[in-house]
Description:
The protein is α/β, with parallel strands linked by helices. 39% of the residues lie in helices and 16% in strands. The chain is globular and about 60 Å long.
Amino acid sequence: MWAATLSPVTRTEATAVPYTLDDKLVIAVSSTALFDFSEADQVFQEHNEEAYMAYQRRHVDVPARPGVAFKLVEKLLRLNSPEHSPVEVILVSRNDPFSGLRVFRSSNECDLAITRGVFTGGANPFPYVRPVRPVLYLSTDEGAVREALAEGIPAARVGLQAPEVVDKYPDELRLAFDGDGVLFDDSSERIYQRFGIQTFHDHESSKAKVPLNPGPLKPFVDALKQVQAATGLRNRLALITARNAPSHERALRTLDAWGIQVHEAMFLGGLEKAPFIQAFAPDIFFDDQRTHIEPAAGIAAVAHVPFGVSNEGRAGR
C-alpha cells in the first residue's frame, strides 16, 4: 500500500510555525497601482478580457513602467536588509495569474523585493486584502478601496498612469496629506458643508484644544512613525489643507496630541492645492476630494481617499 512507503512526519515538520506579518509594515498594492498598465487597459476597454490577456502574454518579458504607487513602494522596500526586513509589500490584483508573471518580472527588473501576490482573474480582490490587514492598500479599483475603508483599513484609489516627474529627493520619503477626511475624520467637514464657513470657523475655534477624531489614514502614519523609530527612515510629511486661520489651530494641536510631526503645513483657505503639491514634490499626496486630486494628477503622484461626507453617493470608477 502507498501508506507503507511514506516516511513518518516528524514533530518539527508537523508543527512548523507559519510565516507571520505581525511585526511588519504591510502595504497591499494592486498591479495597476504599482505599474503603468494603461496600454493593456486600453486593449481591455477597446476589445475584451481575452485580448487583454493575450496582450500581457505577448509582453510578459517587457518590463512595465512605474505606476503611481511605485516611488512609495520602492522607498519603503529600501528599508529592508538581509538582517532586518520591517516592510512587506503584497500584490493583490484583478489580473489573471499569467499576467501576474509580468508583474513579478517587472518588480524584479526594478529591484523591488516583492515575493507574495494574489491574482484573482477579474474577481473582486478585496477578500484577499482582508487577511493581510495592511496599514495601507493602494488600488485603481475604487470599489475595493471603499470596501477596505468600510472595514477600517487605510486605503486610497490611484490613477492608471503616473505622471513623469523627476524625483528631487531620492533618499527621502516625502508624503503629503489633506486633513479632514484623511488624517482626521469628517465631522468638521460635515459642519462646513451644512452650515457654511463662518459656523465652521466658530466651531473649530471653540474646539481648538479638543483633538479631532482619527481619520482613515492615521493608522498608516502611526505605522510609519514606528518604522522610523526602528530604522532611522528619513521622511518628510506635509499637511496640505483647505483649512486656514482660525481653524488651523485645532489641526495642529490634534497632530501634536497624537505625537505626529508634520514638517510642513499649508493652510490654503480655498487656494488651489496643485501648485503647492508640485512645490513640495511628494512621493504621493492623499486627499478625500477629487476637486483637489484631479488638477494635481499630471504633476505628482496623487491618491483619492473616498471617505466621508464628500464622497457619499459618489462611488465611481
